[in-house]
Fold each of these.
Amino acid sequence: MKIRVITTGGTIDKVYFDATSEYEIGEPTVPHVFREAAVGVEWELQPLLRKDSLEMTEADRVTIREACEAAGETAILITHGTDTMSDTAESLIGIEGKTIVLTGALAPARFRVTDAIFNLGLALGAVQSKPPGVYLAMNGTVFEAGKVRKNKEAGRFEATGL
């Protein structure tokens, strides 16, 4: 199985620029994380966007959907900012014959203390084991698209009970 990894930006890829005291989205961190974890599954990186998810538009979601539909792989892992990840996941529902898993991080992957590595590992396992459909892999749980939301106060994702 070959996995398509599509990166769209978000906190997972943010870099802190001390001179300006600001964060900007940098190069995708997935290759570094996968290399350090000695990931043995075949995968291909497709950097698609470099956006904070709060800046994500419906046109961006169409671009992501088109990339998923055009991918030759049936397993697709997408890194995405957490604030609108649920919205993007819902926009991908209905793509036939593909398992699509979105993940991200609440702290940049380049930080010493981050959830990025754990979330990427969870997403990598989910994209290989779940049946076709769209999922979010965050906080140790794999959620079905359309049935999850980000609880900003608690700093985690939770099922909506739909």
Amino acid sequence: MSGRLAIGVGCRRGVPAEAIIRLVSAATAGLASAIGLFTIEDKRGEAGLREAAESLALPLVFLSHDALAAMADRIATPSSAALARFGTPSVAEAAALAAFAGHARLIGPRRAEEGVTVAVAEEIVE
């Protein structure tokens, strides 16, 4: 294990930063620090994501549809809504895995509440 973690985040439009921060904090409690928050490029305009990243002192990284779609076969909890809207069966899980170009494993199940979904992936170093 490398100890390097990536946090994938999906959210509904207009979700407040506080909801994102709560779920990220719950999902990463007791874990090593993360290298950043990762999400799909469509979320660039989400103020809640930007504010959450600033509050958590983490970079916010936007990934392409192709990068997330490349993780499709590794998704533990597929979403038909994400597939229909973004062309990938997941935003949070796929973004966490794509942060390390697929050289990662999901840590536990994704968490979802208050319009936010969070998944954590750990880098695999061979």
Amino acid sequence: MTALGDRIRELRRTKGLTQKQLADLIGAKHNSISDWEKNKNKPDSNTITLLMKALDVDANSLLGWDNIQNMKSDAKELAAAILNNPKINNMLSLLIDMTDEDLSLVTSFIERLNKNKS
């Protein structure tokens, strides 16, 4: 299956954009585009939306979910990453019995932590 970074590179080139041009279109740093295309990092969900607009594709095409095999492969990868990470397993066990209100608070907190990293 083609990695997200490879799809970003392919779609960017199809549109005739340089990494800098794409970065300017979505308000990202040039090195972010490079890191995504090298599959070092992945864009966050807000950036995925910006990439879809800039590259003129839907989420399924950008994420490689335009066919069932890619979706199954991504789901297996994600499940393996979750199951093989003790920290995530521990966190999930803590979250499972939380109320919707508490889950919303935890989600907001995590989103703020991620924004502080940018």
